[in-house]
Structure to design on (325 residues):
């Protein structure tokens, strides 16, 4: 397997983001920094929880419809996955859907070296694949791949994957911009497969993000541990609680870290010194939920045409396949 492509997120960028986002009102920390080695392991544990049904629903859909997806893409030569996780979903798609051993280039884009290594290890068991890891942001990875697509002599078709309801980490304007960035990196005739969690009863949504075992709470607080370790912060993890909120008006689940007392926090590398009051929060993640057909409409405004949509009615999840036009 070729080594990681791209410089990844430099500590200076991490520090700059912490300085900027902690000064906002309400205070925030970007969710992309969840995924250090421990954060990635905790998220894998979350995916196994009975209350977090996204991963199982998506794997069911991929297993059932992988052949349908490949039938739409007869000249497929490359797949790029933005946020590959442990590689299980891409493995399922290829192992179930590919007919014969046509060679495939697999591009994995993630800021987490741990996630890339895990995914590459799983996908290495497939025959006739070449794996390229891009340790960088989605935006930078897309820009690199777009340049590669424009200079390739015989590129074949490419399929981009945005699975795990990663599209839900963007608000609607942000999702539109993200899809337009993907479109600009693809050639006409390339395709995009999007997995999205659907709106469901509030109780089901909240328990998925505030599980009884406290795994999601540990995942959330690990972000503060990472700031302490990498940026010389002094967050007291015991002084923060985990809170999940369903914002029906915005159709999103929000994750927050709640200050349990008045406290002063310093992050030396981020030149940050803030006082947080009891009950004040740091907003760490938004997970937007969609209605049936919404993803296809959003993609169409970004330069795609709808090919198919598959729904898991049991757990409320959708896979939407669109083609670049």
């Amino acid at each position: 397997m070729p080594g990681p492509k791209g410089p990844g997120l430099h500590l200076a960028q991490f520090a700059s983001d912490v300085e900027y986002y902690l000064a906002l009102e309400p205070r925030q920390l970007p969710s992309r920094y969840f995924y250090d080695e421990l954060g990635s392991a905790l998220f894998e544990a979350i995916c196994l929880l009975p209350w977090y049904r996204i991963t199982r629903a998506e794997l069911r859909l991929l297993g059932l419809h992988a052949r349908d997806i490949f039938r739409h893409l007869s000249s497929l030569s490359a797949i790029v996955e933005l946020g590959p996780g442990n590689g299980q979903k891409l493995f399922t798609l290829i192992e179930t859907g590919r007919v014969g051993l046509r060679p495939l280039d697999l591009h994995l884009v993630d800021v987490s070296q741990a996630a890339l290594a895990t995914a590459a290890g799983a996908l290495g068991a497939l025959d006739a694949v070449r794996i390229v890891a891009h340790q960088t942001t989605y935006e930078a990875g897309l820009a690199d791949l777009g340049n590669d697509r424009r200079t390739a002599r015989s590129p074949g078709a490419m399929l981009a994957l945005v699975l795990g309801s990663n599209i839900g980490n963007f608000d609607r304007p942000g999702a539109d911009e993200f899809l337009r960035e993907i479109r600009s990196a693809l050639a006409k005739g390339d395709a995009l497969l999007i997995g999205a969690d659907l709106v469901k009863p509030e109780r089901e949504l909240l328990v998925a993000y505030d599980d009884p075992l406290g795994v999601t709470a540990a995942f959330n607080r690990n972000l503060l541990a990472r700031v302490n370790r990498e940026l010389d912060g002094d967050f007291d993890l015991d002084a923060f609680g985990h809170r999940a909120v369903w914002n029906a008006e915005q159709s999103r689940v929000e994750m927050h870290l709640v200050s349990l007392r008045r406290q002063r926090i310093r992050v030396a590398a981020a030149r940050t010194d803030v006082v947080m009051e009891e009950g004040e929060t740091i907003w760490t993640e938004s997970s937007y939920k969609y209605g049936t057909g919404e993803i296809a409409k959003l993609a169409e405004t970004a330069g795609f045409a709808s090919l198919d949509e598959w729904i898991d009615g049991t757990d409320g999840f959708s896979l939407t396949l669109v083609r670049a036009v």
In short: Residues 54-71 form the longest helix (18 residues). The chain has two domains: 11-33+202-288, 54-198+291-324. The chain is about 40% helix and 25% strand.
